[in-house]
Amino acid sequence: DRADYHEDERYTGFYAQDEIHLFNDMVRLTLAGRYTAARYSDTIRASKVTPRIGVSVSIDKQTSVYALYDQAFVPQAGRIYPNKAAKPLLGENIEVGVKKDWFQGRWNSTISAYRILRSNQLVTDPDAHGEEGLNYSLQLGKSETKGIEADIHGEIVHGLNLTINYAYTDSKITEDLDPKKVGEAVPGFAKHVTNGWLSYRLEKGALKGFGIAAGYQYQVDRSSWSWAAVNQLELPDYFRMDGAVSWQNNKYSVAVNVNNLLNKYLYSGTPYDTYYYWQAEPGINFRAAVGVKF
């Protein structure tokens, strides 16, 4: 017999925040907290107060440093075999960074480092438990994600702007139902990700308002999606180029975006015990938009 499953989820939350400015606004202190309460199908009741503390210090007119600490408590939908609701996701984040303006503010840069701890994460349960059509999850242990992010954007020459960023992510399983998985990469992450976008817009002449842009996304050392994969594989590197042409004035705008300019076969997914699940992106495709301001 097939067991029916019904889940009644209710959430309540309150959030408060205050920002304190000290030493002629050289130091900004943010203090915040959130209370979240969740109820699942009358079987699980959970609540938590999660703090958020941030501080930003101006070194000079062009440079500031900041630090942030916060916690997460996120109710999540899911069912654990045979008929249990998933516990909320718990997280803890620490981040520090430096922001700087260059060339009289025409260029801006940010570099930051962070560490995120998570527990109660959900992944697909690979065992069908004899019930077709019912999707169950496993609530596994803990993971640690550490990384560095850097981005810079600004104006190369008048009308020509560049944005480029890079992220390094090291995400590992630190506690799991299967001890053999401890130390393995968390599924669904790319260790190296970089993006760039170059745009130019004419501001004078007969073609005033016409713009053109191009960009890329590059991911290296990707892992497949699921902890449940028996043969978890690294996915091939991902490289995609996009472009756009547009025109705008004070009232009207027209834009055409062209995605996957190189028409590459790009996919994500994972191998399971007896089958593969891949999700492919479209080849070259277009999107047009027209806007009017009233």
Q: Can you put this structure into words, describing what you see?
A:
The model has no long low-confidence stretch (mean pLDDT 85). This protein starts with 8 loop residues before the first strand and ends with a strand. The strands form four sheets. Strands 1, 2, 3, 4, 7, 8, 11, 12, 13, 14, 15, 16, 17 and 20 form a 14-stranded antiparallel β-sheet that branches. It is globular. The chain is mainly β. The protein has strands at residues 9-22, 27-40, 44-58, 63-74, 79-80, 84-85, 89-102, 107-119, 122-124, 137-139, 142-157, 160-175, 190-201, 210-223, 234-235, 238-248, 252-259, 267-271, 276-280, 285-292. The chain contains no helices and 20 strands.
Gist?
It is built from no helices and 20 strands. The strands form four sheets. Strands 1, 2, 3, 4, 7, 8, 11, 12, 13, 14, 15, 16, 17 and 20 form a 14-stranded antiparallel beta sheet that branches.
Instruction: Pick out the low-confidence regions.
Output: none
SSE sequence, one letter per element: EEEEEEEEEEEEEEEEEEEE
- Name the shape in a single word: globular
Measured as a percent range, the helix fraction is under 10%
SS-based structural class?
A: mainly beta
- How many helical stretches? 0
Task: Kindly estimate the percentage of residues that lie in beta strands according to DSSP.
Answer: over 45%
What kind of sheet is the major sheet? 14 strands, antiparallel
Radius of gyration: 24 Å
Number of strands: 20
End-to-end C-alpha gap: 60 Å
Average per-residue pLDDT, rounded, comes to: 85
Features of this protein?
14-stranded antiparallel sheet, 20 strands, single chain, mainly beta, 294 residues, 64% strand, globular
